[in-house]
Amino acid sequence: MTEFSGRTDPERILPLLWRHRAPAAGRPTGRPPKLTVDAVVAAAVALADADGLAATSMAKVAARLGVGTMTLYTYVPSRAELVDLMVDDVLAGRALPGPGDPRPENWRDQVGVYADRTRAMYRAHPWLSQVTLVRPPIGPGMLAEREYVLSTVSGLGLPLHRINPAALAITAFVTAGARQEADSAQLRRATGQSDDDWWLQRMQLWEDWFDVERHPAMTELWNAGGFHESEDAFGYGLAVLLDGIAADAAGFSPA
User: Fold this and answer.
1) pTM score, two decimals?
2) Which long-range contacts (CB under 8 A, 24 or more apart) does 235-241 make?
3) Where along the chain do its domains lie?
4) Over the stretch 157-167, which tens digit does the pLDDT of each residue have?
């Protein structure tokens, strides 16, 4: 089941998302708390990694931490806030280079870093594909991604009004590919069946129902061996996208 991020009350979620950058308040003088928000989020992420997002209830997270469910609510107001915190935590886990951090000199290689780490993130946390990020949790992880991709394309010579669309196009392509890989991993885990085995079970389709006259392009490519020699679709698509952005930028560069 798909879940939506960003549905939470900003006055409740923003202090939690930015808890490590909040100004220091007066330190409590009583008994130290049993838990921290970080510990709650880490336990929830580990539970989702192991058993899926649907299994990550407040009660199960509390049990994993060895506390009562009501205790958990003193750290995180509801499961909706918890999901937002989990999402931003794994986004931040990519550790994308920030301002002043070492990064590849070539902008394509910089995009490659972003793509590789994003795909690795979804492989490590396949449940993330079940959370729509149309309205994302606006935390350190999300903003680090935006800063990194924007800084990668901002020096290409694109006009001001094209910089953000170029960055969003890269983000959309990479995220879509990573989420598809995660969906495939979720299916393999849920069914115990690989994608190749799934297709092999349906080989009868090609013998009994496939009409070559209605699918001439597919037939021609199959007969030529094109389906067996296809290159990596993700790598090809990303390269073509970056070629287009580079060509667009070159069109605005001084002659």
Assistant:
1) 0.90
2) 237/173, 237/177, 238/111, 238/115, 238/173, 238/174, 238/177, 241/169, 241/170, 241/173
3) 3-188
4) 999 999 999 99
